[in-house]
């Protein structure tokens, strides 16, 4: 049974996480008003707080927006790692207008995931 407060939609995009040494590129596979799922060969720990810079296209316009959050779910596998990131605040029109429009204006069917909220 799905226990999430906000439906996730498929969202395929590249993003960068700033780290102490150098930025790490990750791939996002879904997003909601309150979080996202990203994949990386690099390992991040549960509870880690981070800023992710997301690049994408919405209605033919390219955008680059930032979100902050902490890792609340981790799945490590031989093909790579998946991380559930819970945002510190919901997507907001003044800070992430394109991401918010992508989520709220999507006609895509909500999806379920093997990662669960805490």
UniProtKB/TrEMBL annotation:
Which residues are in the PilZ domain? Answer: 2-93
Molecular functions (GO terms): cyclic-di-GMP binding
Record protein name field = PilZ domain-containing protein
Pfam families associated with the record:
PilZ
Note the InterPro entries from the entry. Answer: PilZ_domain
The record lists the organism as Candidatus Manganitrophus noduliformans
> From which domain of life does this come?
Bacteria
